[in-house]
Amino acid sequence: MASLRCTAVLVLGLLTGLSLAEDSLNAANPIRRVVTLLAKMQSSVAAEGEKEKKLFEEFMCYCKTGTDDLEASIDAAEAKIPQVESALKEATAAQTQLKEEIEQHKANVADAKKTIATATALREKEAAAFATESSDLKTNVAALGKATAAIEAGTAGSFFAEFVSHDGIAQDDGGCRHELGR
Fold first, then answer.
1. What is the 3-state secondary structure (H, E, C) of the chain?
2. What average pLDDT does the segment 59-74 reach?
């Protein structure tokens, strides 16, 4: 273990000494410093040139394909213009027709309402006349019923069993015909 520590300290010392020697050489030699700086600048300029070249190629590709796509889109839109114009004319004609039909239907509804009002008034008048006539007829039927009961009570049962015809002949229940005196 002690030898391992010793080796680690020795390697660390050597590395430190080398870096100090390199720094002292760089610090002592200004030409070396300028050459190193120029080498770094050359590599960064080359990297920037590659990036710009790549961006330029992408932009040119976009310009070429973008122009083609744009021209295709313009051609498609120009081809579609007559179809859209005819569809617009058809829609306008349909709208005009529908407006006329709506006006006609509104007039029909107004006429139907007038007809319904007239029919309702007529039905109410007829209902009132029917109610009056029905009341009169019911009163007459009730009076006849009372009159029939009074006649039955005031006359003999045998006379009422016979039916008198218009020719003056009476017929009893047995089917025999008797002449009535006139």
1. CHHHHHHHHHHHHHHHHHHHHHHHHHHHCHHHHHHHHHHHHHHHHHHHHHHHHHHHHHHHHHHHHHHHHHHHHHHHHHHHHHHHHHHHHHHHHHHHHHHHHHHHHHHHHHHHHHHHHHHHHHHHHHHHHHHHHHHHHHHHHHHHHHHHHHHHHHCCHHHHCCEECCCCEEECCCCCEEECCC
2. 82
Q: Are the CB atoms for 170 and 177 separated by under 8 Å?
A: yes
| Structural domain containing residue 109 | 2-179
| Average pLDDT estimate for 73-83 | 91
Residue 169, amino acid: I
- Average pLDDT over the chain reads 80
Res 14: pLDDT: 61
* Total-model pTM: 0.36
Q: How many domains does the chain have?
A: 1
For the segment 59-73, the average pLDDT, to the nearest whole number, is: 82
